[in-house]
Amino acid sequence: MEPKLENEYVQSGQQAFYYLEKAADQLHTGALYLLAAIYLTGDGLKKDMASALWCFHKASERGHAGAAIVYGSLLLRGVQLPESVTKLYKTASKSSGSAVLDPVEMAKEQFQIAAKAGCELGFKWLQRLEEEEKRLLTE
Question: What is the DSSP string of 53-88?
């Protein structure tokens, strides 16, 4: 049984997902974030980590703090990046001269995006990574 939606505009979860996809196609950051969360959890559909990561990446790229935190956390957990996302990084890295995809550095970039947006959790993650780097250097 499909959950009852208390909304006069959207009549079903399927219709809501349709509109969410349409907004994400227009790169609306909130829609990208929500769609990524749906793909990540498999809420109402099959889990799709590749699509979740792509949506988190795109939302983060446009400054969505929540997407940046989740995406950075997933990178630190060692999730395998799909080719659609690694291509985006490789294109960006050609201009900077760096070809290696370091998950810790990539996560740090995400937390910087969140911190720049004023997200306290972004600052905390950056502090934690800095402390861990210092600890590793003193061992």
Answer: HHHHHHHHHTT-HHHHHHHHHHHHTTPPPPHHHHHH
